[in-house]
Amino acid sequence: MTDDEPARIRAAGGVAWRPAATGVEVCLVHRPRYGDWSLPKGKLDPGEHPLRAAVREIAEETDVQAVPQVRLPTVHYRSEGRPKSVDHWSMRAVAAGGFQPDTEVDEVRWLPVDAAVRLVSYPHDAEVLAAFAALPPVTGTVLLVRHAHAGKRGTSTGRDTGRPLDEQGWAQAHALAELVALVRPVRLLSASARRCVQTLHPAAALLDLPIEVVGDFDEPAPGQQPEECALAGAARLAELGAAGDPVAVCSQGKVIPGMLERLTGRSDDFTTAKGGGWLLAFTGDRLLAADRLQGRAPC
User: Does the keyword Kinase apply (predicted)?
Assistant: First the structure.
């Protein structure tokens, strides 16, 4: 951005969908201010994570509680003279309240995808809907995170597996809990290292779920080959994805790239920052998409 370029507007929303007799229906909103039909979306609050903003905006505009599954295209255009980017996710509707029209949104419609494409007012919304329609059915989601900050190896006494989160790490863990809750997991699984288990503590308290320690997500032990760990971890992730219920998993930096390489069949950069992670969508035991969790919006 140049010095004279106005600040970019960041927004998020998505395609909320529900099963229907003839397939699926998606949710559109009518905005009286603009006289248009569009996908539900809205601006990020200061410091808000885009994924949380997408879930919040869909709930605020439609009274639909939705669970994110797959990242859809980000669209870019100008709004009121400023550049604007809107991140989208496919989201499964799990509950709906009693919608009340207001000055922002005065009507909500659930339509088959082809009817929704014809109704939306903007080509970029039609493109997002087309990307959604091209997806195979999502049967399971896994939120895979790397443990939060815990200092450096060798800075604590005792075995490295006992190294705890530091102050920065606990702040990251509390922030992660908000994202973990968005996918409504029924299970929380962790590698056996103390810092991994602690990373899920705030989410466990928020969701009232136990943390299950699973050795398949551990870094290689002395004498163990990294390939062996990557294969075991990838197999466990595929098993969890095929099971159908959303889950959250905390693993380690030396394991996550190898697991994702095997699940995707690609040698991309899957390096994951501490406290970062991926939203994984499965169709059966096959990985459909791996969405790197983005950072929060600037405060």
Answer: no
Between 296 and 124, residue with greater pLDDT:
124
What letter would DSSP give residue 39? Answer: -
Residue 144 has pLDDT above 60, yes or no: yes
What's 186-220 look like in SS3?
CEEEECCCHHHHHHCHHHHHHHCCCEEECHHHCCC
pLDDT(163) > 90: no
Q: Are residues 121 and 182 in the same domain?
A: no
Q: Is 67 helix (H, G, I), strand (E, B) or coil?
A: strand
User: Structure pTM?
Assistant: 0.90
Question: In this structure, what are the phi and psi dihedrals at residue 39, rounded to the nearest 5 degrees?
Answer: -75, 145
pLDDT-derived band at 297 (thresholds 50, 70, 90) equals very low
Q: Tell me if 191 sits within 8 A of 251, measured CB to CB.
A: yes
- Based on the domain organization, do 162 and 264 belong to the same domain? yes
